[in-house]
Amino acid sequence: MRVVILTIGSRGDVAPYTGVAARLRTAGHDVAIATETGFADMVRATGCEFRPMSSDTRSMLSSEEGREWQRGGTGLRGIRNNIRMGQRLMANLGEDVVRAAEGAEVLLLQRGVMVHGYLVAKAMGVPSMALELFPGVPTAEFPLPSLGGLSLGPRGTRLLTRLAAHMPTPFDGAMREFCQRLGLPPTRFAAVRAEMLENPRYPILHGFSPSVVPRPGDWRPGVDVVGYWWPERAPGWEPPPALVDFLAAGPAPVFVGFGSMSPGESERLSGIVSAALRRARVRGVVQAGWAGMTADGDDVLTVDTVPHDWLFPQMAAVVHHGGAGTTGAGLRAGVPAVLTPVLADQPWWAERLRLVGVSPGSAPLKELSVERLASLIRQAVTDESYRRRARALARRIAVEDGAGKVVMAVERIERAGGR
């Protein structure tokens, strides 16, 4: 079956789908991944076809508008900034999705392309499926992560969801034009999303562990939590010798990395991280990331991109921004975590890790201080209860097969004749 996976965003929005793609290829399917050109090598390393999307999340986050989005964090200000960024992103998104979907027999859709992909699949007469990295369907059991963990209460969340389906958005004009381009009846952006959520035959799979977030009892049939989708490691990858030597030269260090967050804040963050590691009296492996961090000190090593599945099990704890993929990698490794969330679902994951007992707490990245970070790191590495719970959770995660569940869902579609 010809499968096209569509995803845009940061590395954490792309890497999990390489694991899904690899499993689909192993099962005999023909797979393409459509994403931003910065991830072309990552895609091709899986043996899949790469299809380019014109968005450039790294440049967007590095712009003044992108920095303002990150400074806004969550809440109403964050929502306003999110809308502005969404308008910029959607300028070419529809045409990108149309081109990327050519020849597909089924589309697998990440959140950033979900609405456009759903409409393109409908116009093509092929099935599609939503693959979410964090809870995307409203429930009375917890707040919507897309609101940054902002709690409106069970009734408030449901009311907001119902109202949103009927509320105009700044995206509606472009959405009506896109529908016309596809030969579909005109509709609003929120109405498409509501249709996906409410259609009992539309599959929405969530790529995280039910041991971390159990499937809510009020989700409709067809909405499932299937387990993490682990990134595919590039064939032949070898760790840098300097990193191997550093790990062997002393006790397990603490990883610190903020992924795609806060580009342009290298000086501030590097200073805080270096000082916090010294104050916590731990060694550190610091990932430069899009912020361009360069920590200093005899007991600190700065690295570029290193596969988390190789690095994290060798850490005493992991400090990160709380992206869904990095969060899952830390849980898989069975090590305590300290989160420094910025926006979107990151504050929600920070609270979730505290609730499952593998994190002493979090500190928003924009408010990060040496004292707060050092205190959290010391708690994470000296209180053995966090490590015990992290190891127990990792054992449960290890027996799950999230990518296999996606393969099964695709093959159900194939057996049903592509419908």
From TrEMBL:
Entries under CDD domains matching the protein: GT1_Gtf-like
Annotated Erythromycin biosynthesis protein CIII-like C-terminal domain residues: 298-407
Region ranges (Disordered): 54-73
Associated pathway: Antibiotic biosynthesis; vancomycin biosynthesis
Source taxon at top rank: Bacteria
Annotated keywords: Antibiotic biosynthesis
Record keyword Endoplasmic reticulum present: no
Keyword check for Iron-sulfur: no
Domain Glycosyltransferase family 28 N-terminal: start-end pairs: 3-83
InterPro entries registered for this protein in UniProt: EryCIII-like_C, Glycosyltransferase_28, GlycoTrans_28_N, UDP_glucos_trans
Protein name: UDP:flavonoid glycosyltransferase YjiC, YdhE family
Lineage: Bacteria, Bacillati, Actinomycetota, Actinomycetes, Pseudonocardiales
